[in-house]
Design goal:
Oligomer: single chain
Order of helices and strands: EEEHEEEEHEHEHEHEHEHEHEHE
CATH topology of the largest domain: Quinone Oxidoreductase, Chain A, domain 1
Distance between the termini: 10 Å
CATH superfamily of the largest domain: Medium-chain alcohol dehydrogenases, catalytic domain
CATH architecture of the largest domain: Alpha-Beta Complex
Number of domains: 2
Largest sheet: 7 strands, mixed
Length: 323
């Protein structure tokens, strides 16, 4: 089969299209023919060497497609079923992937493989952030960085479903319009405005209850200035680079703040939690109350171009690869 492999970490040119042996499912596993694979910043971090992965490796942690074969002991799923999966180390940049059967979700009628691949990692990330890490409530205000990104657009929608006031940040007028369409009440152009000053102005000097920050280095310190007393900084990414070491006393000085650095795997650790979280998202997509915006789909062999677009923030919504 064709797959993208990384032999040595580095820039997008490290992503090479190669012929590799097709995998075979073992006990409790299934083989899926990939129709669409999600591209995410964690793939960029691994390719660049920020997150350590043994080389060579095939990137990609989410995909959707059709069950092609079952390993021993697999029940409740059949060859030909349409499914989607998120799993660390999935190796989704390929024509076929092997996945643990208990990590796979069936796609309901009306939900396409592209939507399934767009939903698993980024959708469940937005879900756990707004519903579990800091369960935003009606009447509260949140700040969503990169509000027109794949997670950001979903996070805006879910926070609005929960009754929150949403302030987003974006870099262009076009991205600001997308964030507003997703439910952001206010959008700050961080290229021309000091977002922390704007947040304090928009909240009458009170600040927000929570900052959802996927950007990291360039937004973290100013984000702490945006928080209300006993507010929470939820740092879930580092698209601009890792955050510098922090003296915990700063949290006290800024108002007894909370800081957390969550990751998706800990919020779908059990089958029950995976089914609850992904199942709710799939129902929302099926009934049309959650909109998935797919920015672009590249052929598998153009994975490097997809990474370049993601890194220069030239996308708004989900980026997919199609074998």
């Amino acid at each position: 089969m064709k797959a993208i492999r990384v032999h040595a970490t580095g820039g997008p040119e490290s992503l090479r299209l190669e012929d590799v042996p097709a995998p075979e499912p073992g006990p409790g596993e299934l083989l899926m023919k990939v129709d669409a694979a999600g591209v995410n910043f964690i793939d960029v971090y691994q390719r660049a060497g920020l997150y350590k992965v043994a080389t060579p490796f095939i990137p990609g942690q989410e995909a959707a497609g059709t069950v092609a074969a079952l390993g021993p002991g697999v029940a409740g799923v059949h060859v030909g079923d349409r499914v989607a999966v998120y799993n660390g180390g999935l190796a989704a940049y390929a024509e076929y992937v092997v996945a643990p059967a208990d990590r796979v979700m069936s796609l309901p009628d009306g939900v396409s493989p592209s939507q399934g691949a767009a939903l698993m990692l980024q959708g469940m990330t937005a879900h756990y952030l707004a519903c579990t890490t800091y369960p935003i409530k009606s009447g509260e205000t949140c700040l969503v960085h990169a509000a027109a990104g794949g997670v950001g657009l979903l996070l805006c929608q879910i926070a609005k479903r929960r009754g929150a006031r949403v302030i987003g940040t974006a870099s262009t007028a076009a991205k600001a319009a997308l964030a507003r369409a997703a439910g952001a009440d206010e959008v700050i152009d961080y290229t021309t405005q000091d977002f922390a000053d704007e947040v304090m102005r928009l909240t009458g000097g009170v600040g927000v209850q929570v900052v959802y920050d996927s950007v990291g280095s360039t937004t973290f310190d100013a984000g702490l200035r945006c928080l209300a007393r006993r507010g929470m900084m939820v740092l879930y990414g580092q698209s601009s680079g890792p955050v510098a070491p922090l003296d915990p006393q700063v949290l006290n000085q800024r108002g007894s703040l909370f800081l957390t650095r969550p990751t998706l795997g800990h919020f779908v650790a059990t089958r029950a939690e995976l089914e609850s979280r992904a199942g709710e998202l799939l129902r929302w997509v099926q009934d049309g109350t959650l909109e998935l915006r797919i920015d672009r789909t590249w052929p598998l062999g153009q994975a490097a171009e997809a990474h370049r677009a993601l890194e220069r923030r030239a996308t708004a919504g989900k980026v997919l690869l199609q074998p």
